[in-house]
Amino acid sequence: MITSELPVLQDSSNESGATDGVGLSMNMSEMSEESEVKGKKKRGRPGKQPLTSNKKPRKSPTDKTTSVARGRGKANGVAQHNGDGGDPVTLFEVVKLGKSAMQSVVDEWIESYKQDRDLALLDLINFFIQCSGCKGTVRIEMFRNMQNAEIIRKMTEEFDEDSGDYPLTMPGPMWKKFRYNFCEFISVLIRQCQYSIIYDEYMMDTVISLLTGLSDSQVRAFRHTSTLAAMKLMTALVNVALNLSIHQDNTQRQYEAERNKIAGKRANEKLELLLQKRKELQENQDEIENMMNSIFKGIFVHRYRDAIAEIRAICIEEIGVWMKMYSDAFLNDSYLKYVGWTLHDRQGEVRLKCLKALQNLYTNRELFPKLELFTNRFKDRIVSMTLDKEYDVAVEAIRLVTLILQGSEDALSNEDCENVYHLVYSAHRPVAVAAGEFLHRKLFSRHDPQAEEALAKRRGRSSPNGNLIRMLVLFFLESELHEHAAYLVDSLWESSQELLKDWECMTELLLEEPVQGEEMLSDRQESALIELTVCTIRQAAEAHPPVGRGTGKRVLTAKERKTQIDDKNKLTEHFIMALPMLLSKYQADSEKVANLLQIPQFFDLDVYSAGRMEKHLDGLLKQIRLVVEKHIETDVLEACSKTYSILCSEEYTIMNRVDIARSQLIDEMTDRFAHSVEELLQEAEEADDDDIYNVLSTLKRLTAFHNAHDLTRWDLFGNCYRLLKAGIEQGSMPEQIAVQALQCSHYSILWQLVKITEGVPSKDDLVALRRVVKSFLAVCQQCLSNVNTPVKEQAFMLLCDLLMIFSHQLISGGREGLQPLVFNPDGTLQNELLNFVLDHVFIDQDDESQSMEGDEEDEANKIEALHKRRNLLAAFCKLIIYDIVDMPAAADIFKHYMKYYNDYGDIIKETLSKTRQTDKILCAKTLILSLQQLFNELLQDQGPNLDRTSSHVSGIKELARRFALTFGLDQIKTREAVATLHKDGIEFAFKFQNPRGPEFPPLNLAFLEVLSEFSSKLIRQDKKTVHSYLEKFMSESMSERREDVWLPLISYRNSLLTGGDEDHMSVTSGSSSKTGSVRSKKGRPPLHKKRIEEESSVEGSWMMRNDTLQTPGALQTPQLTSTVLRENRPAEHMPDPDSEPGSENDYVHKRGLMEDDAEPIFEDVMMSSRGQLEDMNEEFEDTMVIDLPPSRNRRERAELRPDFFDSAAMIEDESVSLSGQESLQIT
């Protein structure tokens, strides 16, 4: 019987004679062991104390024969090192280095055990102690005279308290290998001892008793190491039990076969031998059952809900191994419930182990009947885990649900399946791919191949996948919340690649004519199929996930590269012929045509010439021309333009043929454009809608083509400029024509600049381009006052872009010859740009919402309008950052930082950061200027008598505080800038004297209260300097005034005079003063005082950081509690901030390490907000024991196991308190 203490030692010389050879398939190394193993006794069940009279009395240590454990240099239980110190002399060192084969290490230990089992066991005990990171050593005297708990307590004192690391947690490849060697050693030890030594009632009793005691320790290292050892020991015993069961069945069959022979041929001696072997195997099985019960009840049921996640994960991983290895004994509700309960664990790694353990079980179809009750009980939890916040857990949950689906389609309801379906649109690719596999199994794997092929032949199709593709289209359309076809294709790419690459079937579905009796694709389904087709083509040609899914393009393997090339050739050969037909059928539908025209960019264009398919190229060019003539939608025209650009690549031989077709098309459009412009300008105000449409339609087409093609030889700028001038002079030009003319002129200028920069420009070319740019900038400036908002916005964006392009940066990089093209905006243009931003960007939300009132897509329009305004602001801020517009203009931007924080806070903050990098002092002047502007506006509204408690004043002070925080912690770097800011602020405060006389405060004196927000950024020396500068503006009477109107001056002076000793220089500045060096030589303050100061400074920095992250508004500032105050609180109210819920502090409390076998309470960890899962307070019988399944000779022992998932069989347990009373931890 295994007790909680070390067993009574017995003299190794008193071992009885050998039992007869009864082991089956015994290896040669074990044959010699039997002669030295005493006769076995049957173990009792756990919980029963053995009779002391059954144990032989131990001889005194003096009577014991002394022997030395061979091969490991141990004498008296103390490790003896070699003289050179090179060879490992302990089991721990041998296993850690891993230089010797584990088989030989174990055989060597077995030999030492035969010589003196006490010293050999002492070696094994020290092995477990040292593997836990303990530097202590158990001596032979301790082993013989001390109780188990006393030895563990003694070893606890030997721990190195300076470090919490121990071998199982140490980083590095050596310790990772050690973990593997540690587990292998235990496995090999049991395997080598399985025929004799493990039944001697000594070795296993000692080891299991030790591991049980260590696993109950509050020292994490002991608990972790011993649990891992015990679980691996249990796994090895399960394997032994499985082998015994097999041997029993084989023996039983041999016995029955011999007994059934006729009397003359029956061998009675053989029958007796088989009966003896069967009895011995039965006794061995009982022994193994007792060992496994001891480990399971003594260790597993406590540690599977340990405070440490790694320990819980070990237990769940190993129980999964037992259930798979020996399903007859362990795959039942009594053990499955532990995995089911732990599915609710709050740590992702534990939930992950649960799912992987279940996957190993559900993979075997034969085990499904045993898993049926578990599936019904925990299916909802498993399905909900597909939304786990840990992506790794979600992926494995989806894979497990897929395995459940494969085993039984009836196990999952439609709602369960729908919960997984939508995950194909997840941005996390592994989750999406796993969901795609599930979708493939559910929807695309249940078709009848013969029926599909018969239907395909009847319709004349080459592919039987028609119905599956229809189903894919329907699924895509029913996913109303998602419109990302590229994501759906990518999710299914690995599982349904054959279906997704069936472009012939997709084309046939799109091109086939209606047949009586069969439903055709609707217009919406055709659009969806075309979109999906284009996405599959892109995925095959580019061989990487779509944008937003994945970390970027990875390097393809040789096999993937070959597949990509083959797919590209396949799709090119097919769509070269099919695309003209598709365009011909759908040329009137702009959405379908825009998608179809994306296909040529994925072609291998060499196929046209290599395959002699020029006629198909002509057909494609003809259809594109027809599309250009029929449509004026921007996306269609841009697709056509891009297709021409791709086909005109100089590296392909088809370039000349395509260039001719393109030139003919441009010639016709430019002639038509010139003619229509003349008519429009001649008729002027009398122009009708047809004249306007002719100009607009042709201009849209030319603008779309000018974006991707150099059309400067057609001189489109001239006619566009004429249209713009006419519109400015007459004021009657339609806004769409003006917008398109501006855009086309912009493209023309950029293409001219490209031509000049790529070659060696002449002076005439530079002068001509400068003249064009100057005239166009003037037109754009005039358009800023246009009555039509789209025209003004377009003109503003083009002005900002051109000023950026033709700025002083144009001549960088050795391009000084382009100096004539540099333009610097004058003050008038800068003011107009700034006023445009103030009028069109910083507008009230109420005005915007009123202008959009009644719109069905109100929310979408608001988002679009905000996006447009952000682009306008960003374009202007770029001019400030790159010193094209004077930095003081940013003052009007910075002053809106608080009011429009939610809309533009990130843009304004980035602008402030970049301008400070350019010029710290000028940036500081700009900041104070923005505050002065707000103060002046407030004076104009309220007059000289400001209400200093009003929200407007508080708003200015809050903005100043935010500005002060942007200066950072390094006061040395910002020293000059902050001092300049104070100087300008003081001058502004005393700028205007009160007209009522010197006894009244200056008109702007209240500004000093705003300025005091920056005082904390001054170092001590500068505070004195600023104060001296302040006194120059003060009269003697001012310093004596104490009325309320003088309070701003008083508070500002106090901010400069106080706090000097509390000023802290930035540690990053690297500067030091003599005072600091003198102080460092003084005695150190008491430790507790030093801690308080450090914690206070940390809290101060935290408050500062919290302020920088605070969003504006009337939100209450959360109350911050000092770390010192928190430390003084009662322990029961002080949760550990570093430990997650369910950590060791929560679990180790008055009840100990969970002695009671009650189901743990876990919190819901799902991403969705479906509500908390109800707490599971089920309890099971503590008296459950491992009962191996009966072999044929043990059928009478079989009994009906209770249903541990049935609520009637469960007893409600009081909730486990997780208040977390702290306990002693040694880490």
From TrEMBL:
Component of cohesin complex, a complex required for the cohesion of sister chromatids after DNA replication. The cohesin complex apparently forms a large proteinaceous ring within which sister chromatids can be trapped. At anaphase, the complex is cleaved and dissociates from chromatin, allowing sister chromatids to segregate. This is Cohesin subunit SA. It is found in: Nucleus; Chromosome; Chromosome, Centromere. Residues 1079-1090 have a biased composition (Basic residues). PROSITE patterns: SCD. The keyword Cell cycle applies. Belongs to the SCC3 family. Part of the cohesin complex which is composed of a heterodimer between a SMC1 protein (SMC1A or SMC1B) and SMC3, which are attached via their hinge domain, and RAD21 which link them at their heads, and one STAG protein. GO terms for molecular function: chromatin binding. Keywords: Cell cycle, Cell division, Chromosome, Chromosome partition, Coiled coil, Nucleus. Its main location: nucleus. The gene is stag1a.
